[in-house]
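cron nightly-structures :: item 1 of 1
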Amino acid sequence: MKREVDEIGDKKTQIKIYDTTLRDGSQFEGISFSLEDKIKIARKLDNIGINYIEGGWPGSNPKDIEFFKKIKCEELRYSTIAAFGSTRKPGLTVREDHNLQALLETKTKTATLVGKSWDFHVEKALNTTRQENLNMVYDSISYLKDQGMEIFFDAEHFFDGYKNNPDYALEVLQAAHKGGADCVVLCDTNGGTLPWELETIVSEVRKFTTASLGIHTHNDCNCAVSNAILAARLGCEQIQGTINGYGERCGNADLCSIIPILELKIGWEVLPAGHLQYLTETSHYISELANLTHYNHQPFVGYGAFAHKGGIHVSALLKDSSTYEHTSPELVGNKRRVLVSELAGLSNIEFKAKEFNIDLDVDADKKQKAISEIKVLENQGFQFEGADASLELYLRKALGEYEDFFSLDNFKVILEKSRKYDTISEAMIKLTINNQILHTAAEGEGPVNALDNTLRKALLEVYPELSSMHLTDYKVRVLDGNVGTSAKVRVLIDSANEHYKWTTVGVSENIIEASWQALVDSINYLLMKTKSKNL
């Protein structure tokens, strides 16, 4: 699968994407992939068409050894699995070195060796001579090449090394090239290289060597993506990075930005044809396995990447999406979102109404009333941009297209705590449904959970479809911390059944009341959609 790019000088290159999420990405604070997680991620990366997947460092831990055993059972269509390790230790032969032998035992076709290219590290970290480091690089690469492996060499700290001693940094690259490295990867390990520095250094390296070059950048100066793209433009044929930019400290170059930039902005073929549309799904899938909240404003793949709030923006967007979008969200598997807030204009409301299959033009007065009410509620602290379910309910109520499925007569919530027992929460509720009064009580893990349990208990007999619904998240935001415990709070509740997820909102100075509003909206939304057979 050739991936031709434009000419750089007289040389044509092919871009290869090398993913190191399973090793470098796992060093991100808060990430600890299980063995099964790593297998699932490898499958997902292969599905999108990544060229190389770095599986881990078999010489460092049993989990990675087991990964290389299990991954052999997977039938990968596009990806080559690479094992990671270091050059031999000073004073050892290649056959005596544990890390090199561990690489061979994986029986992978490809391995990546990391070695020092900054003389400061050679002398201080390795505590050896510059010549011995050159020998270590050459010996290790040539040894594995003799075993029939494809070998990439990660020149660690290359850019810092070049800035401090360019002659020695280039000697290291030369040793790797002479040893037979299939690609010599220039690493900005500390992430401190700026784009104009990288441009100068990569250009000089290209004059010095005929070796195939790669790039590995970190994000400590927020330049990892731009540096990787620039290096590719300068002729680096392999780009290393991670999904979502996961990595140590500030992270690695984010492949979720690099890949669409190369394909959509520069016009290079990187993934198999049609596979770019799986990018957003892949990004979110891996963040779920990492047990990390996906960054909403991540370029290309964040849910907020194509979200529009300003009324003027949305008005223009409805005429032509290119007015406020640099590319089509569907190309990367994302979608356009229009948010409704106090900043919203008529266009925002119209866009959302169309999304909800609501005809706002049936009554001009009701339309204006609906818009005014939404703006008043937003001013009070309601956040409809993150709660589409509540927004749809309020719009339908304002237009007279909705009737409540039940009405509250009253509820009580009791908290009891003593020296002998933990806090006990109990809720009692009285509802009217179809002119019938229902009165019940239930306990829960806290007052909101007790209220939720009681409400469901009262409604289930009449509305059995509620049995499939559950709450997936509960968020509380203090809107004005300056007034202390009397501040207004905003409660967002995420709910789901086996088919769909939705979010509702409540606002009050009383957290129980705010939670009640969001709970009622959540249940009413499900019942409304079930009745209309839309959920």
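cron nightly-structures :: done
The chain has 17 helices and 16 strands.
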